[in-house]
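Pinned message: reference record for 9982_t:CDS:1
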Amino acid sequence: MAKNASVPYKQFVESGNQLVVDDKRNAVNIYCSRPSCHSLIMRAKAGQLVERPKSKLNITDNDILAINDTSAEVEEMQQYWQLPNMMAFENIGFSNTVATGIKFLACADCDTGPLGYHDTINETECYVAVDRVEYATGT
Ligand SMILES: [Zn+2]
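Predicted structure (tokens):
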């Protein structure tokens, strides 16, 4: 039963210093946030901190509408851990591809999600939202 302790992103008051090491990589192992699961999703330094639109995580019935949306609205950004491909994860599940070309990432063990996304049309990288996973404490 003994599992590594982990805490949510919001508990880090200085997340930029505590969670990021050289080259903007994640300092510690990252886990599923469901207490009964706590599966290892990615190891320390597997990801790199980037900003992408928050709306990428929206699960919508209006996929077609989203594609044709040409509004010049400034998109709200949020931070993600960028991984080079799906092989960089320890444990991750992918949804079916929706009409916008997005696959959603979920915990491979308990299906909690979406934890992030993979844009099958534009990029090979995968993105995990920094505030939807937990972080190992200590070393
Ligand atoms: Zn899980």
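Pinned by admin. Summary line: The chain has one domain: 6-136.
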